[in-house]
Amino acid sequence: MTDPKTGDAGPRGGWTCPIREGAHRHPEAEALTFAGSAWTYRALDAEVGRWVRALEDRGVGAGDRVALLATNHVASVCLFWALGRLGAVLAPLNARLTRVELAPLVEDVEPRLVLALGALLDRLPGTEPLESFVAPHLTPSLTCGPLTEDAPRVVLFTSGTTGRPKGAVLTEGNFRASSRASAANLGAHPAPRWLGTLPLFHVGGLAMLTRTAYEGGALILHDRFDADAVNRAIDAQGISHASLVATTLERVLDARGDRPVPPTFRLALIGGGPVPVPLLARARAAGLLALQTYGLTEACSQVTTERPGEADGRTAGPPLPGMHVRIVGEDGTAQGPGEEGDIEVRGPTVMAGYWKRPDATRDVLRDGWLRTKDVGVLDGHGRLTVLSRRTDLIVRGGENLYPAEIEAVLANHPAVQEAAVVGVPDARWGEVPVAFLALRAGQPMPSAEALDAWCRQSLAGFKTPARFTWVDALPRNAMGKVERTVLRQRSIG
Length: 493
Description:
The protein is an alpha/beta fold. The protein has two domains: 18-384, ANL, N-terminal domain (Rossmann fold, 3-Layer(aba) Sandwich); 393-492, GMP Synthetase, Chain A, domain 3. Helices cover 28% and strands 26% of the residues. The chain has helices spanning 18-25, 41-57, 74-86, 99-109, 172-186, 203-214, 227-236, 246-256, 277-285, 358-364, 403-411, 448-456, 484-492, and strands spanning 30-34, 37-40, 65-69, 89-93, 113-116, 128-129, 152-157, 167-171, 193-196, 218-221, 241-245, 267-271, 290-296, 301-305, 324-328, 341-346, 353-354, 365-366, 369-378, 384-389, 394-396, 399-401, 416-426, 430-439, 467-471. An eight-stranded mixed beta sheet has the order 2-1-10-9-11-12-13-14, with helices on both faces. Helix 1 packs antiparallel against helix 2, helix 2 (41-57) packs across helix 3 (74-86) and helix 7 packs across helix 8. The longest helix is centred in the N-terminal third of the chain and has 17 residues, at 41-57. The protein is globular, with a radius of gyration of 23 Å. The chain starts with 17 loop residues before the first helix and ends with a helix.
């Protein structure tokens, strides 16, 4: 079997490292830029070979895990591809976690080697510095073993908002399938140039890293998100694609002012939840096509995405080609269009399982379907609207309330920068929704009465928050997800 994009061997013979393939097919094409430096496929292939040599010298081989604590860095890119050539597995750790949070994760994956950027070494005692792991003049290794479809590539820990973090095992086949499905949805591009601001310890960052290599494109990697740096890259480096969230999209537009986006920029994928309709309209007025998406770590990033020619910002779009999404009721039966229920996903991007967690794997993977524990609804065109995580569901007097629906209405208010809604106990109704809001800079703070009236224009009365609380910023965990437990405690206290 041959990969239709690259022509390299498929699962039977195993896939070749795409950086090695690129070095043969288009050696002088740009593969990566970072911190003012650039690497062609030929140069990156040689650098990855040096990393392979250094890892071989340390006894790293097939099946071994290497844990990594780092923000975005060229060394992380080389390590990822080098481990693939050896059949070893990367366990990227969230650079925002504390020493206490990191220790059990490292213990869980039992790594042969632990590397960290110098600035983060104190988080993991005994860790080796990433930047100096490879000697400058080390001779590249020619080792480049093939990878089969089921070969593990990463153990990627989930955020742990509902318990101890679990390591999702994502395979070479998962990443290849995700890349193919996304490309089929977005349309052909001869050499896409993806802006890499999402962290490489996040599935979204790894998805960009892999898809650019599979498609013969370039990753324009930034060590962190900076709106001015993003705009400079869009204007001067021919960026064609980007992945953002609503807050970073808004910051990019704020920093651009009234400058239009150049025609080289094709589109941005927007994840992390619903995007305010006015923000999408503002992006399109600037010439930036923003597509809403729904995805999760366990499905190797995207599951559904708006189609470029049909996007209206009202849903997270239909399933990507090759993916299947269904909505099921409490009894497990499939729901029809417009009927709410649990979101389940099936397709080649679904993970192999959770690392050393067979019970958790059996609980979430049943009959080929991934039980996401998110709540949503499909419309008559198969487009998905995500309503809530099951654990965030609010039941008021027997009525189900979905925080995402209420948050989307509040986020469209001109004075609201961001919003989160949680359920708190109530003697009469069982639970009532309470909203936490961050004020948009330069806007006057509206009264509770004004916010109540705003909500009632779009929501039934029982969905309108019982209270509105202003905060400087919403509390978030290390993965950037809103810590609703903290907000519930604040509401009760």
